[in-house]
Amino acid sequence: EQVTGSCFFLETDGAKIIVDCGAVQGERMCSKTNLEDFAFDPKTIDAVLVTHAHFDHTGRLPQLVARGFAGKIFMTPPTKGITDIVLEDSLNVMRDNAKKCGDAVPFNSNELAIALSRMVGVNYHTAFQPAPGMTATFFDAGHILGSSFIAVDVDGKRIVFSGDIGNSDVPILPDTEAISHADVVVCESTYGSKDHEPMAFRSDALAEFVRTVIGRGGTVLIPAFSVERTQEILYELDLLITAKKIPAVPFYLDSPLAIRATALYHEYASYLHFDHPASMGGDFFAFPSLHSTLSQSESMAINNDRRPKVIIAGNGMMTGGRILHHMTRYLSDEKSGLLIVGFQAPFTMGRQIQEGAKSVTIHGERVAVAATVHTIEAFSAHGDRQKIAKWLHPKTGAAPKVFLTHGENDTKASFKTYLAQHDITDVTIPKVTQMFEL
Known about the structure:
Blueprint: E1 8-11, E2 16-19, E3 47-49, H1 55-58, H2 61-66, E4 72-75, H3 77-101, H4 109-117, E5 119-121, E6 134-140, E7 148-154, E8 157-161, E9 184-188, H5 199-215, E10 219-223, H6 229-242, E11 251-254, H7 256-267, E12 290-292, H8 296-301, E13 309-313, H9 323-330, E14 337-340, H10 349-354, E15 359-362, E16 365-368, E17 372-375, H11 385-391, E18 401-405, H12 409-420, E19 427-428
Parallel strand pairs: 2-3, 3-4, 4-5, 8-9, 9-18, 10-13, 10-14, 11-12, 11-13, 14-17, 18-19
Antiparallel strand pairs: 1-2, 6-7, 7-8, 15-16
Helix pairs in contact: 3-7
C-alpha cells in the first residue's frame, strides 16, 4: 500500500520463504514503523531471496536475524557487495536518529555481521533451491547494478517477483530481461500512472539546467540516491563536459556511500553496459573537475568555494544526509537550482519541495525555497507504465495474474485501468499482510 518496505511471504506445504525484507522510507525521522514486529515468525523462514540492494528491499535483514531467522539470504554477487555498504551506512544513520528520538536502534553491529555472513551470491540464470520443493532463478531487472526479478517455480507454477523494474535505455545497464513465462507476477507500480520523458530528452534537459544555473553564477544541487542514480548522473556529466555542452566548473560528489558504491561499479563492470565506446576500459564515472569528499570536514569546506559549481549529495528524498547541509546554504539563493532526479515519497522534504513548498524546515531552521526547482523524471531508475506493461507480457503463454505492489494507492488504481487497456485484466491490488491462495 505504499512505495518502500517491500517484503513478500511465500508458503507451501513444505517450506516458507520471503522475497525482500525492506525498510519503510520517507516517514518522519522518529517513525516507529521499522521497529514493529514482522507479520510472520522469522524463526520459521527457510530462506530469503533479495531482488536488489536498495534499503527499501534490504533494510530489515539484520532485524530478521535478530528475531530468529537462521537461514541463507540469496542475491546476485553485485547485490551482495552493495547490500554490505548500504546496511553499514544505514546502521550509522539509525544510531544518530535513535539518539535524537530516544528510540531503540533496530539492530546492532553483531546482528548486521551475522546477516552479511548469511548472504550467498548466485549469478543470473542459475537455478537453485532456496528451500525444499522450490527452485528460484535471478534475471536482470535493469534497475541498478545486480538488480533482479526472481522466478520461483513451485508445485508446477511459476511466480515472478518483479523487485524494481528498470527504466528504458539506461546508458550504463543492460535492458530489463523479458519474462519467458509466468503464472503469477507480483509487480511494482512506482510510476504506474506516468510516462517518463524520452531518454534522449534527459541529457539535453540536464545540460540546459546546469548551463542556466551556472550561467547566472549559482550552485546546482542534485540530491541523488547513492546507488545507480549517482553513477548515471556522473556518466552523463562526463559525456556533457567532453562534448563541451556544459562548462567544466567544480563538481563535488559529497556522499561517502556513493563513493564506495561507485568503486563497486568498477569491480563489477562486467555486469554493466555502456552506450558510449569511450567508456569501455576507462574511468567511466570520473572527470578532471570532479572532487570526491569522504570526510565531514571536506564536505563542510565545499561551501568555502564561492564559484558556480555542482554538488551531488545524498540522500535522494532529502530526508537526511549531507544534501541537507547544502540546502541550508543554497536553497534560499535565487541564483541556485535544485534538480530532482528520483521518486519523492509522500511526507518527505523532497515531495514538499517538488509540490511547491515556499519554505521547509532543515535541522530546526526554516529555510525559504527561492532556488529554481526542476524535476527530470527520465533519470528515474524505475520503468514507467509503458515499460512495465510491456514487460508484463511474457514471451509465451497468456497474460498472467498480476498483483500490484510497491506503489501509492491511487497510482496502482490508475495502473490497473491502464493494464486492462493492454489486455491484462486479472489484476489484484492487495492490502498489507493480506494472504492469497494460488
